[in-house]
Structure formats: C-alpha cells, structure tokens
Amino acid sequence: MNEFIHLQSKNHSLIIKTDRVPEVLHWGTKIAQIDEDLLLSTERPISQARLDVDVPLSLCPELGSGHFNAPGIEGHRDGLDWAPVFNLVATNQSRNAVEFTLRDDVAKLELTIDLELDFDSDVLKKRTSLKNLGDSRYYLGKLSSTLPLPNHANELMTFHGRWCHEFQTQRQRFEHGGFMQENRRGRTSHENFPGLFVGSNGFSEQNGQVWGFHLGWSGNHQMRADVRSDGRRFVQAGELLLAGESILDTDECYQSPWLYGCYSNSGLNGISQRFQKFVRQNIVKFPVDKPRPVHLNTWEGIYFDHKPEYIMQMASEAAEMGVERFIIDDGWFIGRDGERAALGDWYLDEVKYPNGLEPVIAHVNEKGMEFGLWVEPEMVSQDSNLYRNHPEWVLGLQGYHQPSGRWQYVLDLQNEGCFNYLFERLNDLLTRYNITYLKWDMNRELVQPGHQGRPAVHGQTMALYHLVDELNKAHPDVEIESCSSGGGRIDFEILKRTQRFWASDCNDALERQAIQKGMSYFFPPEVMGAHIGPDECHSTNRRHHINMRGVTALGGHMGVELDPVKEPQEEIEAFSRYIALHKKYRHLLHSGRSFRIDPADKNQNIYGVESDDEMLITVCQLAMPDHALPSPLRISCTDTDAKYQVKLVEMPQISFQLMKQRPKWLDKTLTLSGDNLKEIGITLPILDPESALIVHLQKI
Ligand code: DGJ
Predict the structure, then answer these.
(1) 57-283, which class in CATH?
(2) How far is CA 266 from CA 199, 210, 619, in A?
(3) Which CATH architecture has domain 595-699?
(4) Which of 117, 349, 419, 668 is the most exposed place for a label (fewest CB within 10 A)?
C-alpha cells in the first residue's frame, strides 16, 4: 500500500511514504512532482549481520519493530503491552495538513499523528496522541514527536543557560551518538530552552542547510537528537512524564505538545525569519493593533520600597522621557516588604498606599501612560495569610520536607479552591483598577510537584494555561508578560496567551547581546522585553556607557528599568534619545525580517531588520577588535539593482580610544547600489570594546 503524501508550503515540501507506518522521505526544498520511480530509487539495502528486514525510521519509531534508539512511545499495561507495533489504518489529508491514525490491535492502542506545514511561513508542526482502547489502564511513560533528518545534517547547535544567562548556544559534531536534554524543573527553564538546530557542516547565520526545532511547552520536556549506527538521524521531543504521571483509563487519550520544525537553505537567518513569521501569524495575539508601548518597570529602581508620592514622581519623569507604559513591580501588596513574605495575599498594602492605588494609576494615566502591575500568582510565601489559611494548597508531597525556593512554595493549581481563589483575586484587581498590563512572574522550580500524591507537572502546566485563558476571556484587552526570574518561561505555548517575555533579569548590555541573539532565532523583537538599566548593572556590577545600553535595548520591545528621579540629567537625556530612536524605527523593528550577519571579527555581533524598502543594522563590538582595522560591512540582503541612502543613526558620543581618524562617510549620507553594498560593503569605524553603532538604509 505504498503511497506518498506530499504537503507543500510556499517554499518547502514534506513527502511522507505511507506503508505499514508513515515515514518521511523528504523535508526541505520544494519538489515539483513525485516521480514514479521514487519508491524504487529510495529503497534501502539490508545490511549483513543485522535484522533481515528493512526498519523504517517512522514518525513514531517502535522498539517492537526493530528501532534500537529512542522509541517514540514507551508504556505498559501492568507490565504487558510495552513494545507496541502499529499499523496505519487511516490517512486524512486536507491541503497542507495530514492526520495519520495507527492501531496496535494486540496492545489495544491507537496513535494519532498530526502534521501541518504552514503555507506562508514554511513552519511544520507535529503532535502525537495516544488513546487506550483496552479494558485496563495504560501506564504511559513517554509519547514524543520524531522527525528525521538527512545524513548530511551533521552539526548540532543546542541551548543551555541559567538565571541571568539565558539562550547560550553550543556547537557540536553530530556524526555518531547524539545529544539529549531533560528538563525536570516544571517550567520551560533557563537551563534547557526546548529548541535546537541541526545543519550541514559549518552552517552559519547566513549559509548552510539547517533544520530548527522548538517544543511549545511550559513544563518538563525531553529533547534529543540521535544518529543511528546506520547513519540515519532524527530529532525527537516531547513532554518528560514523571513516573505514573500519565495513566490512561479505557478510551482516555494523551496528547503531546506541538513540536515546531523548520528548514532553511540560507543558514540560521532562514530559520529565524520563518519562526518569527509563524509566531506573528499564528502564535502571539495583541488585543489591539498598536505600536508596542515603551515601558518603565519599577523593580530595579525602587525594589520593595514603595511610596506612592515618589512613584508618581517617577511616573512624571518617565512620561517626560517618552515612556508609554508604567509598571509597578513586586512590593505593592499587603506585607510584601522583602522577598520572604506575602506571596499569595493579592490585596493592596494599605499601609504603603493609604489612599489606594487609584491616585497613582490616575496620575500615570494623566501623564498619558498605561498602567501595569506585577503579580506572581502561582506562588505562596510561608509567611502569608494564604499559607496560614490553606497550607494544603501547596503543591507538594505529604510526608516529605520540601525545600523552598526564594523562600516560597508553588500553589497547586489543580486544587479547585486554590484555582478559584487566584482567578477571583486577579479578576478583582483587573476589574477594580485601570490595569492594562500584567507582568506575570514565576520565580521557582517545582521540586515535589504532587497533586493528591500524584505527579502533577502536566496537570499544573495545563491548569496554568487554563487560568491565563480564563483571565484573557474575562479581560480581553489586558496584555500579559511571561516572566520567570527573567527568561525561565519562554516558549510558543505560553506565548499563545501572553504578549511579551521578560528575556532576562540581566540588564547588562553585553550579556544581553548574547541572550537576545539566542532568543531571536525563535521570537520576533516585539515580544522580547529589553530594558535600559542603570550604568552599573545590578546583576553583574559591570558598567556600560549609555551607547551600549541604549542600542542593545532598542532592538527589542524597549523599556527602562531604573529610577529616573535619581538618574543624572545627562543620562535622562540619553534615555529620551534612545526611546525616541526606538519609536522612530519600531514600525520596522516590530514587523520586518530580522537577520544576523556572519562577522569577520568573532568579537562582533551584527544584526538587522529589513522591510522591502528600508533596513536598520546594528554593529556591536563585544570585545577588543580582532584586527586593527575592521572588515567592511557587506550587506547581502540588499536588492542588487536598487539604490540605497545609507546613513549612520547612532554611534558612541564619546571620544574613541582605538581610532584617531574616523571614516568621512559617518557624517554624510551615502548613495550606494545594492550590488556595491553586497559585494564591496561599507568601511566601519574602529569601535572600542562594548560599544555599538546603527546604520539605516533607505531604498530610493
Ligand atoms: C523576578 C523578575 O524577573 C524581576 O524582573 C522582578 O519582577 C522580580 N522577580 C520581583 O520579585
């Protein structure tokens, strides 16, 4: 029953051979037609001294059919039915989507595999579901989504990180063995962002074939890339289920999170442009189509020291600087004078705010800004009224001592009373006050995630989604930021119900260059919270000139994170200048195609955004230049036949240390054609370490 399913998007093809099980034959550049001889030409030989039959690398590889690497499914029925082998029983194709139904009549299991190749963005998404058709319970240990890769995909790029150090990348050969990451932290995590890239040898920002992957899930996950001993290779990702976490009764079904994949033959740029387009069109929804407002967030400015009069002064200064949304961070609710108490008591602290929050909000609104508020709904402090009244609402395991994290515990969102309390509190705040924005924080990992004694990361994650969904329904105009000690919960699934990520608690511009670069492979700039902090960074104690801080924050969803009342006038003027620059270009930054340029100097980070008629390029000198003279900036995405006006819009306003004479064009507007820019390029000034410039190109 060999047949082909051919899904096509604007540029790509996914060809699946259907036999006993579906098997991907090609995922990449578009194929015009499937030749009659394709089946014959792709038939594999059978090697000596191994199984006597060909074993397909199917969309859900099975141990029971001779796949000795990670199977797509693991489980059992009281020790039986632990090596299922499926047969394809139905295929339903509708345009660029297909659903396969497979059955194992012995183990009494039904598997459903959904695939969709998004036409516009070329992003592929895949999900796998399992239904128990038997009379007894099925203990599911794992149900992951598998996608194969061609054998020339032999280099891996993965992500690692930690608090204040998100989205760090690592390269390794991918020829034998493999890579595996397991996240058991109960949130997407700083450590194991669920994404990776596999590509042809030496793939770079601009060149090479690359396949990119992201698992849209905010709980535990497992993600791996394996090379089988026969050279075939695959990526596999799914939820990491704790022992006993998924037990399916008769007719019960488990559905995996979506795995998103994407191919590019133009390096990582081709991947990120596709993922970013997909996010814009399919994932993030802004309640109102308006420019992303510039933020001021109070955290690093005042921490827990809340005085309404002073906050209003901060708001006045913020408005003067051009801020459009003012957010009161942690410290506003009853008893919250430090990080050890009060989480869960989501009532205004009337000692700090004797006249209520209303006058502060009114002041913020009078200054023309929106008002936002910080919350951390999933948490409770031991020293809180909520904990004293409901210690049983803590997510945990009876009989064990659970370590606290930031002196707090996680609430059991599957507990109905707890869920309703949180909804009531948040709903009340959003109804009572003119709040248009919530910064939704989540500051600790799940250590003993037990609900009624059973493992509950899956249930907790689904309940979180449900809570946010319910609030979105009740308050459709309110935007939400997903924050988790910075970037601990950044993924497509949470972004379906939020509008912004706090990328990192690290506002150190040098660190941010790497964090934001890593994040940009998946997410567009308009969802990437990026703030200018004070000159001495609170998380690293490193100092950066405003040029480096301003340029770095300007490329995301911009904000400032400081106390403007205490900042010197010179800094205030600079913040205003960068805010104005951001506003001038945010139409382009927040809708254009982002790209990165492979730098000749490894100590540079070069990135940009383009639309059909303009382009903004940032060159950041991260450390000492590699050579005495910088290489020309060659811009390969220009239109060869077009002419461009090229103008410097930003560079350090201080005297340079490494350069005694600057190129004259810096003070002029150049007119250059696309091929000159592409092939010859423009000469850059010698940037001192930790400084940056921005160039604007306008098509004439
Ligand atoms: C962690 C967040 O990432 C910070 O931005 C800030 O909101 C603090 N929590 C407040 O406790």
Answers:
(1) mainly beta
(2) 11, 8, 21
(3) Sandwich (2.60)
(4) 668
Q: Which atom of ligand 1 is nearest to the CA of 486?
A: 3
- Enumerate the domain spans of the chain: 57-283, 295-377+424-448+472-591, 595-699
| Ligand 1: residue whose CA is nearest its atom 9 | 485
Catalytic residue annotation: 441, 505
Residue 2: predicted pLDDT: 67
CATH of domain 295-377+424-448+472-591: 3.20.20.70
pLDDT tens-place string over residues 591-610: 999 999 999 999 999 999 99
The residue to mutate among 374, 501, 561, having the most atoms of ligand 1 within 8 angstroms of its beta carbon, is 374
Distance CA 339, CA 425 (A): 20
Distance CA 367, CA 375 (A): 24
- Name the phi and psi angles at 174, rounded to 5: -135, 75
Mutate to test the pocket of ligand 1, among 299, 484, 489 (most ligand atoms within 8 A of CB): 299
What global pTM score does this model have? 0.98
Q: Whose Cα sits closest to atom 10 in ligand 1? A: 330
Average pLDDT value for the chain:
97
Fold identical between 57-283 and 295-377+424-448+472-591?
no
When pLDDT is cut at 50, 70 and 90, the band that residue 638 belongs to is: confident
Alpha-carbon torsion, ordered 542, 545, 549, 552, to 10 deg: -110
Q: What angle do CA 482, 484, 485 make, to 5 degrees?
A: 135
pLDDT in tens, 15-72: 999 999 999 999 999 999 999 999 999 999 999 999 999 999 999 999 999 999 999 9
